[in-house]
Design goal:
The chain has 15 helices and no strands. By secondary structure, the protein is an all-alpha fold. The chain is elongated and about 80 Å long.
Length: 313
């Protein structure tokens, strides 16, 4: 689940913190990086569990609002949302239950958020149409939750605030983790039952290695990379480069030099996008031009053997 986009984001955040806080303990900094990434996976599990809790709250309300006699007399009351086969499968998922129990993750202090989301769901036409189905299929059950997650859970500011209160590490993670939860919902198949696979914390060991090596190279070679930045900035107003701009450039250079399998244009594009999020409005243009200049210089000096290509500046 932890992909390279998320890794780059975390490295930018922690490299900035490393310099701002005056930290010089690289071992602890690396541990902090890996811990921060593991917390993103915790959020993935936390949000999957949230889906289950919304369903459980719907059942609790149904039981309160309909006593036994009423339930027996009015069997026409739709239980489609409560009996949703996708969510019941998720609720029984062996791996999710094991990991949630191990991490002691719960929403006990945020039950109001669960109820608020349920109320928003019940106000939608999509929910009304779903509840009117006589015998919803597994695909119907999964589709209603794809709709709910994309249109209600992804966009709920109160839920975002509650998540940030749970962990400082989750401040910038939800928009990324949301994509993985939606991917998981799409991948569920009825025949897999409680053994349905969830996304692994790391896709493979290469991604974990990428995180550690990129972080260490960016900091260990700081002086060298900043010299490249200074030399490439002769045609740019260096005073306009913020501390974050320099950090973004520094990490991008580390990636270009130490990971031959990653194309130069991919690296440059990734850090342009990060600049749009973490730096000033004009930073993306500076970073594009400076990285392009540095990449060409590294090639000319025989320090990097990857094509730069023709890029728009």
């Amino acid at each position: 689940m932890i992909n390279r986009d998320l890794i780059r984001t975390k490295i930018v955040q922690l490299t900035y913190a490393y310099y701002v806080n005056g930290n010089d303990d690289m071992t602890n900094a690396e541990k902090e990086l890996l811990f921060s990434l593991s917390k993103a996976y915790d959020l993935y599990l936390f949000l999957l569990n949230f889906v289950v809790l919304v369903r459980d709250e719907a059942e609790n309300q149904w039981l309160v609002n309909n006593n036994r006699t009423q339930r027996e007399e009015n069997k026409s009351i739709s239980r489609n949302f409560i009996d949703n086969k996708f969510v019941l499968q998720l609720k029984k998922n062996a791996k999710l239950n094991e990991l949630i129990e191990h991490k002691k993750a719960n929403w006990d202090e945020n039950i109001d958020i669960v109820r608020q989301v349920l109320a928003l769901i019940e106000q939608t036409q999509k929910y009304a149409d779903y509840m009117s189905l006589e015998h919803p299929s597994y695909e119907d059950d999964r589709e209603i939750w794809r709709f709910i997650y994309k249109n209600i859970i992804c966009t709920n500011d109160e839920l975002d605030d509650a998540i940030e209160e749970q962990s400082l590490y989750w401040n910038d993670d939800k928009y990324v983790v949301d994509t993985f939860v939606q991917k998981t919902i799409r991948r569920f198949e009825e025949e897999n039952g409680e053994k349905q696979e969830l996304l692994e914390e790391y896709r493979n060991e290469d991604d974990k290695r990428f995180a550690i090596e990129l972080f260490r190279n960016a900091i260990d070679n700081c002086e060298e990379y900043r010299r490249y930045i200074a030399e490439a900035s002769l045609n740019w107003d260096i005073s306009r480069l913020s501390t974050m701009d320099i950090i973004l450039l520094q990490i991008a250079i580390a990636e270009m030099l130490n990971f031959p399998e990653i194309a130069v244009h991919v690296t440059i594009n990734e850090y342009i996008e990060l600049a749009k999020v973490y730096s000033t409005p004009k930073s993306a243009g500076y970073i594009n031009g400076i990285l392009d200049t540095i990449a060409r210089k590294l090639n000319e000096n025989g320090m990097m053997f990857k094509p730069v290509g023709n890029r728009k500046k």
